[in-house]
What does this fold into?
Amino acid sequence: MLKRELVNKVAGQLDGYYKKDIALAVDLILEEISQALIEGRRVEIRGFGSFSVRSRRPRNTKNPKTGRIMNISERKTLHFTMSKSLKEALIEKE
It folds into this structure.
């Protein structure tokens, strides 16, 4: 789902609000989530899941094309854990 589709879906459910206001609200929510993750905080949305930042340790790997060994430095990655209710809903849908 694209952000535009999310805004259209929410606008269809909320009468009396302009799409530009809903788009602004979505932008503000995403900005706050991003800022919290940049600061290293965990973001939990009940009934949906939680986002956290994890560090991947540095490692050595081989370039498959040249065979040369490369050093990959430590990285930050985003980790998402879905909520129990979302997980159960996905299982039931199968």
Remarks:
- Residues 42-94 form a domain with the HU Protein; Chain A fold (CATH 4.10.520.10).
- Helices lie at 3-13, 19-38, 84-93.
- The longest strand covers residues 49-56.
- The mean pLDDT is 94.
